Amino acid sequence: MATLLYRLGRGAFRHRRLVLAAWAGVLAAVVCALVALGGKLDNDFAIPGSQSQRALDSMAENFPAAAGTSAHLVFTAPDGGAVTEPRYAKAMGDALAAAGDAPDVAAVLSPERTGTVSQDKRTALAQVNYRQDRSELDEGALDALEDAVRPAEEAGLTVAVGGPAYGSGGVAVGALELVGVLVALGVLAITFGSLLAAGMPLLSAFVGVGVGLTGLLVASTGLSVSSTAVTLALMLGLAVGIDYALFILSRHRAQLAAGTDPEESAALASGTAGNAVVFAGATVVIALAGLSVVRIPFLTVMGLSAAAAVLIAVLVAVTLLPALLGFAGGRLAPRAGSRAARRAAAPEGGAKATTGGERWARWVTRRPLLTIAAVVAALATVAIPAADLRLALPTNGSAPEGSSQREAYDTIARDFGPGFNGPLLVLAETGGPGADGQRAAGRIAAELRQVPGVTAVGPPQYHAASGDAVLQVIARGAPDAESTQDLVGAVRDRAPGIERATGARVSVTGNTAVGIDVSDRLSASLVPFAAVVVGLCLLLLLVVFRSLVIPVKATAGFLLSVAASFGAVVAVFQWGWLADVLGVARTGPVVSFLPVVLMAVLFGLAMDYEVFLVSGMREEWARTGRAGPAVVEGARNASRVVTSAALIMFFVFASFVTTDDSLVKPIAFALAFGVFVDAFAVRMTLVPAVLALVGRGAWWLPRWLDRLLPDLDIEGARLRPAPAAGDSPGSRPNTAPLSENQQPPPAD
């Protein structure tokens, strides 16, 4: 792989105009395709084959008004007034009549029909049912609904429009989200001491993000792509795009400072740092694609979308970046005498400047056992809240304060009860058209009223031809409350008894039930998915570093980072710690797919830092055979780049925490926190301490296993020239791992 990437980098350097034109052509092609085809995002969550989804599909034919999404219209009279006053009643009637004429509306249920007028007569609730899911509504359907309530507002009523039709709309990237890019530019400028060098990772990342996101929007014409998938792809594509270019460019500038020809340096950087980029990117892609094992379509598309963004970032880093290096030529070399030049100086060219990474590595390895104990204790403490982790899909109760859907949600919960924000639908398939079916539906309604946790059961909507009936059940708790989840389980547990008594097959569905089924599936898949990720971690690092200790250590560190991230998310988004500071609109259960997304993404990013940090240590070990100094020297060479990369990724993710989107905010927070903890507490602190503690045993591998594993040459050792005959033993490459029957290398 190193040789292939070396040739690819040299070819891109030489044919830089052709490579640049090719990427410009790809970007232009996907933009033209987007203009021609358009794109449509789908923010509905479903699990094909689940009871709730099967019932919804069955209802679509006989009860189209109940099978689609719905909106809530909440009318509130001024202080001292009542919605039952003639002038207000007429205004509401006019508004509801206009709402019935809005696009895609199947039915309008007035407050008189549903009995949803508050006891003090100040608030009335109407429901608007649509024929389609939220993602299939006409573009102006909700705008038309909001225009329809103008007569009521002009009459003096306060009207809030909300309900399931108003969900997460994704993230519109604005000034706050771009702060992360500006901070990344600052970090790059400090790292390289050159605006020319700092601009290259940003330029290459923007090209990759442009191609990836535009292509994803084009794909949304044929696939169900959610706005959260687009945002996740944007965050990851931007973060890894900058980081991967940073790794290669840092190696290139160090080689230029040592006097290497620019073309040869670009090829060597592609074959060494580029080799690590390809492997690191492959781990992220594999982990994200692994989300498909959960068998939830929207999560599969989310994982594959983000994986595609990362794959494009890798391709840009190993093709477009070397071409850009060709345009820059020798201008990227650090100035003679600068700190950057002194950091890269070879021993024979003068003493290397001591770096902060070297001082930190010496400090944490001075008493490695104490360092390990301190890091593990700190992360374990942060992880304690994770034991209280609860999962659910967000509701409009998590919408920004002041928004119409949040006002509707809060008003309904206050005046009618939290269960009215997410009614359950019960499909009763009686199989008996006519009076028998109606009697069975009535008996089922009476049975449901006896279930603990039920506030009210609406009259059955009966379809005479099929004998099916739909009943609306109002839970006592909010849609994302544990009591509502328990109620869904209780109704499903009673279903066999109801079927024996009435002959009707009973299924629980509706938006609330679908969300509960999604959360249950994700909770059940958490442990198997974690096992897959941990297994991949062990296998990949075993192949790359040809060591038994390093994979185990890396896996343990990854699990500590994930647990600490879960703990921080629970503390902020469930317990409310720092909720006001971070702008959390409402505390409650964590987004149900956050844990698997966090594990997939953090696994890949953790392996990025593991590879770039430990490969430098292994390179020194292979060169000198001295375990202790190899840890310090490897940290010296890699710590600045790893620190810069982690800071860039942290600020990119953290900039998305400022969004009001209830799906994106906790994911961005978890990723930002996880990257920070994994990079600085685990990779920069725990890893050197563990390797210093175990010494040369860190690189031990049984001979039989050594023969079975492929040699990936992640450090690009084959690209270095063979040692001269007079070289000292310490300078000869020692690329073979220490096997069980070999003599150990020279002592430190």
Keywords summarizing the entry:
four-stranded antiparallel sheet, 27 helices, 748 residues, 7% strand, alpha+beta, disordered C terminus
Amount of helix: 55-70%
What is the tally of beta strands? Answer: 11
Distance between the termini: 32 Å
Question: Unreliable stretches, pLDDT < 50, 5 or more residues?
Answer: 346-350, 722-748
Q: What percentage of amino acids are in beta strands?
A: 5-15%
**Structural class estimated from helices and strands:** alpha+beta
List the helices and strands and how they pair.
Layout: H1 2-14, H2 16-37, H3 51-62, H4 64-67, E1 70-76, H5 86-100, E2 105-109, H6 111-114, E3 123-130, H7 141-148, H8 150-154, E4 158-162, H9 175-192, H10 195-219, H11 227-257, H12 262-271, H13 273-289, H14 297-328, H15 339-344, H16 356-366, H17 368-382, E5 391-392, H18 404-415, E6 424-429, H19 435-449, E7 454-457, E8 461-463, E9 468-475, H20 482-502, E10 505-509, H21 511-545, H22 549-574, H23 579-582, E11 590-591, H24 594-624, H25 627-655, H26 664-694, H27 703-708
Parallel strand pairs: 5-11
Antiparallel strand pairs: 1-3, 1-4, 2-3, 6-9, 6-10, 7-9, 8-9
Helix pairs in contact: 1-2, 1-12, 1-14, 2-10, 2-14, 5-7, 9-10, 9-25, 10-11, 10-14, 11-12, 11-13, 11-14, 11-25, 12-14, 13-14, 13-24, 16-25, 16-26, 17-22, 17-26, 21-22, 21-24, 22-24, 22-26, 24-25, 24-26, 25-26
